[in-house]
Every structure is written in C-alpha cells, then in structure tokens.
Automatic annotation (TrEMBL):
Source domain of life: Eukaryota
Matches recorded under InterPro entries: DUF4577
Keyword terms: Membrane, Transmembrane, Transmembrane helix
Keyword Signal belongs to the record: no
TM region positions: 65-89
Any single Pfam family the record assigns to this protein: DUF4577
Protein name: Leucine-rich single-pass membrane protein 1
Length: 129
C-alpha cells in the first residue's frame, strides 16, 4: 500500500494576485448591485473572508499615519529652526547695543582720567597737601 504524499501545492503568487483582483471586482460588483439592506451581509462576509484585504487596509493606514507623523515632524522642526534663527538675530542685536554702550563708556572713562590727572597736577602745582 502506498501512502499518498502530503504535498502542499501553494498557488503561484501571480495567480494569487489575479484571484485577489477578481475577488475585489466581484465585491465591487456586489456593492453596486445589492440594495442597502443586504449591505450588512456583504460586510460580514468581507470581515470573515480574506485577511489579505484587512492587512492591506492596515498597511495603507500605517503608511498614512507615518506620512502624517513625518509632515508634523517637519513642521515642528521648521518652527524650531525659525525660532532659533530669531533668537540668534535678537542676541546679535543686543550684543551690538552692549558693545556700542561699552565703547561710549570707555570714552567717558578716558575723559574722567584726563580730568583727574589735570586736577592732580593743579593741586600739586598750587602746593596744597
């Protein structure tokens, strides 16, 4: 007695794709033909049917979620970079103001030193001790 072999013949992925397309077209045709009352029966059939459609739907949802997250990240990054550039410009303006004040104060200090030296010379010449 020969035992039958337990070979599992997996369908070719190309044929599987054709079946998926035909199944999708059939579902679309059912949606167009069926009235609203029988729509619930189709939904139940689809939910218990191929998991391939569910995974493709979640895959598309994941791609959309990734795309939205990516766009939000870019917008937030752009806002942060703009804020940093604004702070750099403000800091440069403040530094320019401070340096101009320091230069004017330096001139005032030099004038005060000159006046102090003149007063000391005058006091030394007049002989007041």
């Amino acid at each position: 007695m020969e035992r039958p072999s337990l070979e599992i013949n997996l369908p070719d992925t190309h044929e599987e794709g054709k079946l998926y397309v035909v199944d999708s077209l059939n579902n679309l045709n059912k949606l167009n033909v069926c009235p609203d009352g029988s729509q619930h029966a189709l939904d139940v059939e689809e939910n218990t049917g191929d998991t391939e459609e569910n995974t493709s739907g979640s895959n598309i949802r994941n791609q959309c979620l990734f795309f939205i997250t990516f766009i939000l990240t870019l917008i937030i990054s752009l806002a942060l970079v703009s804020f940093v550039i604004f702070l750099i410009i403000q800091t440069r303006n403040k530094m320019d103001q401070i340096s101009s004040r320091l230069i004017s104060e330096k001139k005032n200090i030099e004038e005060l030193k000159k006046m102090n030296n003149m007063i000391l010379k005058h006091l030394n010449q007049s002989g007041i001790k």
